[in-house]
Design brief:
This protein has 456 residues and is mostly beta strands. The protein has four domains: 133 residues, Immunoglobulin-like; 102 residues, Immunoglobulin-like, CATH 2.60.40; 90 residues, Immunoglobulin-like; 106 residues, Immunoglobulin-like. The protein contains one helix and 36 strands. The strands form nine sheets. Strands 1-15-12-18-19-20 form a six-stranded mixed sheet, with no helix packed on it. Strands 21, 24, 25, 28 and 29 form a five-stranded mixed sheet that branches. The two termini are 29 Å apart.
Length: 456
């Protein structure tokens, strides 16, 4: 794969896609009405689909702590079990545990069928298990040879998205064909499509950014007079997407993202220290990013089975391994021009728990002294402490002051005012957003040469 092509994605003639028609974009909510086929029976049929990230086996309790579906393995769906119609209390636990990972009380229609999609999301802070009851009594297409596909977005942390559907897989290196609709992260919606049978491929990108691929080539195989539901759920980093396919009252399959979003953060000191990062996939090496330090680059999507390569002033240095599927990661290159090292840092770009705050962490890229363990203060409150060179802090939350700014200062065990508040221009940051503060510069012989903070 040529990663220079990945950045521009695949170009395809739209005429190849004219047979697919979009029915529309409709609102989605926990009001489970609008389905056909329900009756006035006193009970509903429910089953649990385990699309989580970190829970290998789940149990479903239906009212009064009764275990109804047991040991539902990751990427599988249970058999149907009975649940009372009306407001039914549903609880999902790790297998064998009595502690509820998530509890919901949806209104179920008598005689209705539902698949309870268990997934993990970090839209409100750390990754938590959530559950959504997918109705399975939508009216079957009346015409033979036709099918209906519903695409739902359960990943608000991924932001606004564009969705494409094509009849053949999209190759790396251009624009996807078959735009079918967009998702607004703040409004729950479904994209509903109706057309012929076959296998189609779903690609999702960031809104108006074809280079920022969040999910590539999820296969959707449908036969005549079926209703299929595609659910988009967050991968481990929150920005990339996993997918699942539910055939109404039929099979359930998952599609796990095999890519990583990675960016270059260069903190190599010295005049004109040029850092180049590349990736090798299937024997083909392509440039990922490059520039003169200090630099904080943009994210690029690469296959997680790629290997990284780094050069500093055209000299190769050992590159870290460990690109994780579905993750956002920072490739940090730091140190002196002849002693540079590289490390991989896992990012968490999910929004803060409190939407009025910013979520922030510190990467210490300051060179010149390995004892320069630093502390970051935001608006007078310690946000990160004890951060060693080449390392990152945990994420913390910071408020926006009365001027709409966040004032940052940096100190260390060597210097109480590496970057004092009086020397900084306040950063204007957006609430409900995640940032990394990148401390860079040379602290050799205590000169504080070029010490600065980059916020991105």
């Amino acid at each position: 794969m040529n990663l220079s092509n990945v950045k521009s994605f695949l170009k395809r003639d739209m005429k190849n896609f004219k047979w697919w028609s979009a029915v529309g974009v409709v609102a989605v909510g926990l009001t489970l009405s609008g389905c056909g086929g329900s009756s006035s029976n006193s009970s509903a049929s429910v089953r649990l689909a385990n699309a989580s990230l970190t829970h290998p086996s789940l149990d479903l309790w239906v009212t009064n702590a009764v275990t109804s579906a047991t040991a539902v393995a990751l990427n599988t769906v249970s058999s149907y079990v009975s649940a009372p119609s009306g407001a039914a209390t549903l609880q999902v636990n790790d297998h064998g545990s009595s502690t509820g990972l998530t509890i919901s009380t949806p209104t179920l229609a008598g005689g209705g069928h539902y698949t309870l999609l268990a997934y993990e999301s970090g839209a409100t802070g750390g990754s938590v298990v959530k559950m959504y009851p997918l109705p399975e009594d939508w009216t079957i297409p009346a015409q033979a040879g036709t099918t209906q596909v519903r695409i739902l977005d359960f990943a608000p942390e991924a932001g606004n998205l564009d969705v494409y559907v094509a009849a053949s897989p999209v190759a790396a290196g251009g624009t996807p064909a078959g735009f079918v609709g967009s998702f607004n992260a703040s409004v729950a919606q479904a994209i509903v499509l109706s057309e012929g049978v076959g296998t189609y491929y779903v690609t999702v990108t960031a809104s108006n950014n074809l280079a920022d691929v969040r999910m590539l080539n999820m296969p959707v195989a449908v036969t005549s007079q079926q209703v299929a539901t595609v659910s988009l759920t967050p991968a481990s980093g929150g920005s990339l997407l996993d997918g699942s396919l539910l055939i109404q009252q039929g099979a359930f399959t998952t599609f796990r993202n095999t890519a990583t979003r990675v960016r270059l953060a260069s903190a190599v000191s010295g005049t004109a220290s040029n850092v180049v990062a590349s990736v090798t996939t299937g024997g083909v090496t392509s440039t990922l990013d490059f520039g003169v330090a200090p630099q904080f680059g943009s994210y690029y999507v690469v296959p997680a089975n790629s290997s990284l390569n780094v050069t500093v002033n055209s000299v190769a240095i050992p590159a870290p391994a460990g690109l994780a599927t579905g993750a956002d990661m920072t490739l940090l290159v730091f140190g002196g021009p002849t002693t540079a090292a590289a490390s991989l840092i896992t990012d968490d770009n999910r929004p803060p728990t409190n939407p009025a705050l910013v979520k922030m962490r510190l990467i210490n890229g300051i060179t010149g002294n390995t004892n320069n363990v630093v502390k970051l203060v935001a608006n007078g409150v310690a946000l990160a402490t004890g951060v060693s060179p080449g390392a990152a802090s945990a994420y913390g939350s910071a408020g926006i002051n009365q001027y709409g700014n966040v004032n940052l200062s940096l100190s260390s065990s060597l210097d109480a005012n590496l970057i004092p508040p009086t020397a900084l221009t306040a950063f204007t940051l957006n609430p409900n957003t995640t940032y990394t503060v990148f401390a860079v510069g040379d602290y050799s012989t205590g000169s504080k040469s070029g010490l600065t903070l980059i916020v991105q």
